[in-house]
Amino acid sequence: MTKETVDGAMEEQQAQSKKGLKKQQKEVEKAAKKAEKQAKLAAEQQSTEEDDFAKDRYGVLAMVQSQQKLDRTLVRVKDLTPEKADQLIWMRARVHTSRAKGKQCFLVLRQQQFNVQALVAVGDRASKQMVKFAANITKESIVDVEAAVRRVEQKIESCSQQDVELHIERIFVISQAEPRLPLQLEDAVRPDGEGEEEGRATVNQDTKLDNRVIDLRTTTSQAIFRLQSGVCQLFRDTLTQKGFVEIQTPKIISAASEGGANVFTVSYFKTSAYLAQSPQLYKQMCICADFDKVFCVGPVFRAEDSNTHRHLTEFVGLDIEMAFNYHYHEVIESITDTMVQIFKGLRDNFQTEIQTVNKQFPSEPFKFLEPTLRLEYTEALAMLHEAGVEMGDEEDLSTPNEKLLGRLVKEKYDTDFYVLDKYPLAVRPFYTMPDPNNPKYSNSYDMFMRGEEILSGAQRVHDAQLLTERAIHHQIDLEKIKAYIDSFRYGAPPHGGGGIGLERVCMLYLGLHNIRQTSMFPRDPKRLTP
Amino acid sequence: MALRELSSLEKYLGLKKPNKYSTQGDKKVPVLQNNNGPPLVGLVTIACHLVKEAKRPELLGDSAEGRAVVQQWLEHRVTKLDGCTKEDTKTILKDLNLYLQDKVFLAGNQFTLADAFIYFGIHPLIVEMPIQEKEQYVNVTRWFDHIQHHPGLRHHLPPLVVLRNRIYTSRHH
């Protein structure tokens, strides 16, 4: 080795040893820290194991696989009232929030629209470790809780159960939620305005719809869909009382019922078939089959490539059809009376739900008249003309004009619900009965809620010959509707009806602005899941 | 457009002989040939001249302050309102709405040239406006309806329908 290299090597060695020293030092420090940590942990663990007298009063239970039949009553959160004060009860709910404060942990336990405050405090029933466990339960986890119901002097404003709180004696996790939720429930119910003002997060609609299962847990969603269930219930009950029979119609059909443009095609063995755009044809065939008054509740499929606030590709149709004696106004009266019964039923029995929705989405209460307001098309044109809108006699109403008309009607008659009668024949489907006195008009009608259309209906053509003429006039292939026309050849009563969309009625009754809010798992041109 | 306004003004003033106007420049500034002197150029200049010709000086304001305000509005019309962009319209209408909060006419307590020319200038904007917006600018709409019914004023402009009652009462929908 030359001197240089020796020097170099020496330097290297020196450098190495400097480095080495540093490295060694670091390692020593690291080891020291590790030892410290381990010692601390050990001490903690020791203390944990030492002092935990409440060990069997909390924990994560094994998955409920129906191991045993426990004869235990679980009380509902909504029944936790001062009447139950000082009782020891069991209940199951979700952990909405949990917050530790020194020797106490405050939880809010939620069950659908109801929530209650609960408390785990270090004492003779709960240990420090138990309080720590409670504070660490992830949000949305489902827990079984045994607690004493205690009265509170000051009302708990933030909970639905304001007069009591639970003092927890035992708490077990039945189903744990993952710590990172795709959205926070408080954010999902925050009104948009408030979010902007206070700089807090709100959740946009797409996120809500992508994580629908969690979004549906919010108080607002629970309220909306309970109300929707009410609408269906009231529809069925009112019509059954009026002597209507509920029918089921096929959804896989051989010909497009409303025209070929907006229909879904499905492969049907060796040929293709269509998904029904409405139960129209089958409702009418039932009338010809002597069922007299029928209704059906079922899915409707419209392949409309419209991405608007009020269109879905699949929605629930509530359809009515009935034979009448002499005038189709008998049908209008039946339908409007049904709608009024629904509105009254919602107003009288679902106020809690309506108020809950209004907290996040404020709106004016829904107003209607009895008897229902009925305007003729020509009157509507005159009202629009007075307001400066020019429209032809036989022109259909555009959406902005419909909305403007709704506003004018509201201002003049103070109602959010009305019927527009005698539409021009040119803008109605081929099976609409023309007006007997004026060939430009027809015996058809639309109904509106808050200025938006919810029902289209008419007296139907029940004469096979006239029906054929009308079909030819509309350039419809007679072969495709042969079975339909045939049903009127063997005696058919005069009849009429109409259909409403369940989601649209709910949306407009509550004054909401997007139909996806009232459809549990909405379908539109851009959404096929969940 | 400016020429039609001037011809409407002539009719309003009751001037027997309509003048012949020409225009200059690509902004089509109106020009009036004068036998007595140099030609009059500009909408406001010609309008004031016509008013003097018709011996209706009150249309230019009834006091020194009134006259100043009228001139201000006429200048506003030609410089700010004509040829403004969509964003500017919103500001202009908002300011006008605020100004008209407690006034029946733009200047003083009577009809002046200011009212006429702001009415002419704003007409195309109001005609396009949906009812909801018209109700937002409630003072502008009120003043507009008042001026458009002023006898003898509205010649070349179609009347606008203004609803008597508000139909957009709440901020929802």
UniProtKB/TrEMBL annotation, chain A:
Aminoacyl-transfer RNA synthetases class-II family profile domain ranges (all copies): 225-530
Ranges annotated as biased composition (Basic and acidic residues): 24-39
Record's subcellular location: Cytoplasm
GO biological process per UniProt: aspartyl-tRNA aminoacylation
EC number: 6.1.1.12
Domain of life: Eukaryota
Major subcellular site: cytoplasm
GO MF annotation list: aspartate-tRNA ligase activity; ATP binding; RNA binding
Keyword annotations from UniProtKB, A to Z: Acetylation, Aminoacyl-tRNA synthetase, ATP-binding, Cytoplasm, Ligase, Nucleotide-binding, Phosphoprotein, Protein biosynthesis
Catalyses which reaction(s): tRNA(Asp) + L-aspartate + ATP = L-aspartyl-tRNA(Asp) + AMP + diphosphate
Annotated GO CC locations: aminoacyl-tRNA synthetase multienzyme complex; cytosol
UniProt-annotated stretches for the region Disordered: 1-48
Pfam families per UniProt: tRNA-synt_2 (PF00152)
Cross-referenced HAMAP family: Asp_tRNA_synth_type2
Role this protein plays: Catalyzes the specific attachment of an amino acid to its cognate tRNA in a 2 step reaction: the amino acid (AA) is first activated by ATP to form AA-AMP and then transferred to the acceptor end of the tRNA.
Description of how the protein assembles with itself and partners: Homodimer. Part of a multisubunit complex that groups tRNA ligases for Arg (RARS1), Asp (DARS1), Gln (QARS1), Ile (IARS1), Leu (LARS1), Lys (KARS1), Met (MARS1) the bifunctional ligase for Glu and Pro (EPRS1) and the auxiliary subunits AIMP1/p43, AIMP2/p38 and EEF1E1/p18.
Protein family per UniProt: Belongs to the class-II aminoacyl-tRNA synthetase family. Type 2 subfamily.
PANTHER family in UniProt: ASPARTATE--TRNA LIGASE, CYTOPLASMIC (PTHR43450:SF1), ASPARTYL-TRNA SYNTHETASE (PTHR43450)
Protein name from the UniProt record: Aspartate--tRNA ligase, cytoplasmic
TrEMBL record, chain B:
Domain GST C-terminal: 49-171
Pfam families listed in its UniProt record: Arc1p_N_like (PF21972)
InterPro entries in UniProt: AIMP3/p18_C, Arc1-like_N, EEF1E1, Glutathione-S-Trfase_C-like, Glutathione-S-Trfase_C_sf
An annotated GO cellular component: aminoacyl-tRNA synthetase multienzyme complex
GO BP annotations listed: positive regulation of DNA damage response, signal transduction by p53 class mediator
Name of the protein described by the UniProt record: Eukaryotic translation elongation factor 1 epsilon 1
Organism encoding this protein: Labrus bergylta (ballan wrasse)
Upper classification of the organism: Eukaryota, Metazoa, Chordata, Craniata, Vertebrata
